[in-house]
Amino acid sequence: MVRLDKIYTRTGDAGQTRLSTGEPVAKFHPRVAAYGTVDEVNAALGLAAMQAEAPLLEAIRRIQNDLFDLGADLATPDRGKAMAWEPLRLVSAQVDRLEAEIDAMNTALAPLDSFILPGGTALAAHLHVARTLTRRAERKVTALASLDNEPVSDAARAYINRLSDWLFVAGRVANDDGALDVKWVPGANR
Predict the structure, then answer these.
(1) Which of 38, 84, 130, 177 falls 20 to 30 Å from 44 in CA-CA distance?
(2) 49-103, pLDDT tens digit by residue?
(3) Architecture of 26-77+88-183 per CATH?
(4) Measured between alpha carbons, how far is 23 from 17 in angstroms, rounded to an integer?
(5) What is the CA 41 to chain-centroid distance, rounded?
(6) Which helix (H) or strand (E) holds 132?
(7) Which residues fall within 8 angstroms of residue 18, CB to CB, at 6 or more apart?
(8) Where exactly are the structural domains of the chain?
């Protein structure tokens, strides 16, 4: 279990931080940017949770917990060296759960015949904000994975990709199973 006795350390005042491996890196390092953006997604989901009720609320809370797992995974790069502890890693079962939940939510939704505008209910709007932040996090994670000696697990990459799909479908569910979706009308304002 994590224990935080002191919140500030002053070690970051000069623009440096440490990964969970103890490795010092700049606060703008791509790995820090990746897990920092995952934290932004989590905060956006906290706002969504304020509007949610069961069963979406419980699912959002599970995802928030998963996002801390993802942050821990990203903050502990597997550079092939033995560690004094077993690092927390995302596992394929977490991705599989998202897929099963997407499939279950999608059964009540009519197929789309147009793109939809982000919004509708307050919950849907918050879920769409979280979705766009998730796409940004995915770009950061995949950019990180493309760098030499900056490994990212397959499960971590799959999870962040699948999460944006989950959030899109959940946004439609929050819009009265799609009844309140606002469709994009191409060229409507020409």
Answers:
(1) 177
(2) 999 999 999 999 999 999 999 999 999 999 998 999 999 999 999 999 999 999 9
(3) Up-down Bundle (1.20)
(4) 8
(5) 5
(6) helix 122-145
(7) 11, 24, 25
(8) 26-77+88-183
